[in-house]
Amino acid sequence: MTGEAIAFYVLAAITLASGVVVVRSPNIVHSAVALIPAFLGVTGVYILLGAEFVAGIQVLIYAGAITVLILFVIMLTEGGTGLRLRQVNEQETIGAMVAVVIAALLVVGITRTGWHAGTGALPAYTPGAIGQSFLGPNLLVFEGTSIVLLVSLIGAIIIARKEE
Amino acid sequence: MLLDWGYVAVFAIVGAGMVALPLLVIWLISPRSNYPQKFETYESGVPTIGQAWSQFNVRYYLFSLVFVVFDVEIIYLYPWAVIYRDQGPAAFYDALIFLGILALGLLYAWRKGALEWV
Amino acid sequence: MPWYLELLRAIAGTVLIFSGVAVVAAMFGVLLERKISAWIQSRLGPKHVGPQGLLQTIADTLKLLQKEHIVPRNADPTIFASAVLVVPLAALLDYVVIPFGTAGGGRPLIFRDLNIGVLFFAATSALVVVGILMAGWGSNNKYALLGGLRSASQMVSYEIPMGLALITVAMLAGSLSTVKIVDAQAHWWYVVEQPVAFVIFLIAATAEVNRVPFDLVEAESELVAGYFSEYTGMRFALFQLGEYGEMFAMAAMAVTLFLGGWRGPVLPPVLWFVIKLYALIFVFMWVRWTLPRFRIDQLLGFSWKVLIPVALANLVVTAYVVMIVHR
C-alpha cells in the first residue's frame, strides 16, 4: 500500500471517529470541540488531492473561525451550562434501520459504478491559478460572493440584534 | 509537494509528542496529596458563588460573526493578490468592487452597533 | 532520497526547531523580558542564578517541573487536558515556514518552503484561538472563562488587519511563499514600500499574543491570569511557551515580510536574521513596559474601526500604485 493510501485511511479514520463523537456525545461542548479533528482530517484529504490552498483555507476558516463561532454560540444558549442532552429518542431502532439501508444503497451504488478517469486536463489548484480564474472566467462568481457575504452579514446582524 | 506536507505532518506529530513529554515527566515525579480544598475552583480565596457556566452576552457572538464574514473575504483576496502584479488595470477595478461591497458591510455593522462592546 | 531518510530529516528538523524555540524564545525570552523590564524600571533583574542571571529560567523550569499537577474538581478533564497541547503546538507550527537564513550554496534554511507559506502562518495562528477557548472553558472558573472569551474575541478581531497586511506584502512579492518574499526584497526591504502595513502587522501581532497594551485578558489585577488561571506547574509553563513562542514567531514573520529576512551585507545570513529578530523583540518588550493597557471596548473598537479601514485603504492604494507602475 502506498504512503498516500495509508495517509488517506488514517485521515478518514480520524474524520469519521470525530464525526461520531460530534453526533453522539451528550455534552455539547465536547461535540463542538470534536469538530476540530474532523476539519483537520478533511484538510489532510485536500492536501492528498493536491489542493494546498483549499487546505489552508479549510484550517483558517473552519478550524479557526467557524469553531470559534460555534463555541461562542453554544455558550450563549443553554448548552453553555454543561447541559447533558439525550442523544436518542423512541425512534432509535427505526432510525438505525433506515441508516443501514441508506448506507447499503450508497455502498452498492459506489462499488457498481464504473468510475472513469476524467479526460480533461486537471485544473491547477495553486493560488495563482485560482486567482486567474477569479479574474477571468469566474469573475461574476467572485463579485457575487461579496454580495452573498454582505447579505449574510446583514441578515445575521438583524437576527441577532432583534433578540436583545 | 506531497513531500512538503509529509514533513509538516511529521512536525505536528513529533511536536505533539515533544509538548506532551514534560507532562509525562510531571506525571512521574510530581508530588501528590489529596485534600478536598485543593481541588476547589479558584475565586480569590473565597468559596465560589454560582456556576461559571452561565449565559453570556450576544456581543461575543456578533464579533465572531463579523469576523467570519471578513475572514472569508480575505480568503478571496489571497489568490487575487498573488497574481495581481501581472494583470491589467481590470484587476484593480474588479477588486475595488469586491472590497467596496464589503466595506459597505463593515459600515452597516458599525452603524447598527454590532461592533460595540456594551 | 529514500523515505526513511526523509523521515529522519523531518524528525531531526522538528526536534531542532522545538528545542531552539524552547530555549531561545521561552527560556531566553522570559529572561530577556525580566532584564529589560528591570532596566526600564531602573532596577536590576535576576542576577544570582548563573552568570548575570542567565540560568534563571532554567531554574524556574526545573522548579515548575516538580510542582504538583492539580485539576480542579469541576473542570472538564478532556478539554482541560487537550487545551494544553493545542496552544503550544499551534504556536510552534508557525515556525515551519520561517526562513532563518541560507545554508551553503544559497539554499534557504527553512523547515519546509510551502507554496502557501503566508496562508499557513495565518491558519496556525487561528488555531491558537481555539486552544485558548478550550482552556478557558475547561477550567470551569469564572476568571478563566471570561479571560478565554475576551481573549478569543480580541485575537479574532486582530486577525483581519494582520491578514490584510500579509495580503499586501504577498501582492508586492507575487507569491505566498516566504522564501520568495525574502528573495523579492533584494533591492530594498518592504518596510520602505509598506510602512503602514508594517505598523499594522506589529500592532496586530501584539494583540494576537495578548501582550500589553492588549493584555487585559490576562492582567493580574483584572482576571488573575486569564484563561490559564487554573493550570498548575508544567502546564502553566507550556502555556507560557505557547505565548512566547507565538511572540517570537510573529516577530520572525515581521522580519521575513518587512525587514528583508536574512538579507544583509557582510555578516552571515543567520546572524542578520537573529539581529533583526531581537531588535523587534526589544521593541515588543519596550512597548510592554511603557504603555498602559487598553480597555476591552477600546481595543476591539480600535481594531474594527481604525485598523481595518486603514488596512483596507492601504491595500487599495498599494494596488493602485502597482497598477500605475506596471502599466
UniProtKB/TrEMBL annotation, chain B:
Gene encoding the protein: nuoA
Enzyme class, spelled out: translocase
InterPro entries in the cross-refs: NAD(P)H_OxRDtase_bac/plastid, NADH_UbQ/plastoQ_OxRdtase_su3, NDAH_ubi_oxred_su3_sf
Stored Pfam families: Oxidored_q4
Catalytic reaction equation(s): a quinone + NADH + 5 H(+)(in) = a quinol + NAD(+) + 4 H(+)(out)
Enzyme nomenclature, EC number: 7.1.1.-
Function per UniProt: NDH-1 shuttles electrons from NADH, via FMN and iron-sulfur (Fe-S) centers, to quinones in the respiratory chain. The immediate electron acceptor for the enzyme in this species is believed to be ubiquinone. Couples the redox reaction to proton translocation (for every two electrons transferred, four hydrogen ions are translocated across the cytoplasmic membrane), and thus conserves the redox energy in a proton gradient.
Taxonomic lineage from the root: Bacteria, Bacillati, Candidatus Sysuimicrobiota, Candidatus Sysuimicrobiia, Candidatus Sysuimicrobiales
Protein name: NADH-quinone oxidoreductase subunit A
GO terms for cellular component: NADH dehydrogenase complex; plasma membrane
Source superkingdom: Bacteria
UniProt keyword list: Cell membrane, Membrane, NAD, Quinone, Translocase, Transmembrane, Transmembrane helix, Transport, Ubiquinone
Record family assignment: Belongs to the complex I subunit 3 family.
Membrane topology: Multi-pass membrane protein
